Amino acid sequence: MARTIMMVFTNPRSAEQEAEYNAWYNQVHLKELLDVPGVVAATRYRVAEGAGTTEPSHRYVALYEVEGEPAAVFGALATRTADMSMSPALDTEGAQVVFWEAIDGGSLSR
């Protein structure tokens, strides 16, 4: 089975909590997600300032590479969420989780 990408779009609750949010996400949360069966890699991104793109609703996205059935990985993630160290700096209500599967023939590289 091909790898799937799980994208998690998030924001800090406020600008004042942004440093706390980033420290927690990088030092705690990424490691917790890598402990979920099926999650094999994690990378975070933020909006590139001045790139001339439309302002998105979320300033941060985490990309998780997933091996296995996405529903099973999401189920394992949901089961573990209650035991994770969630930060009060994370806007949990605005977060969005989306799984993406590769399109056959839709990949090129140099």
From TrEMBL:
InterPro entries cross-referenced by the UniProt entry: Dimeric_a/b-barrel
Protein name, entry field: EthD domain-containing protein
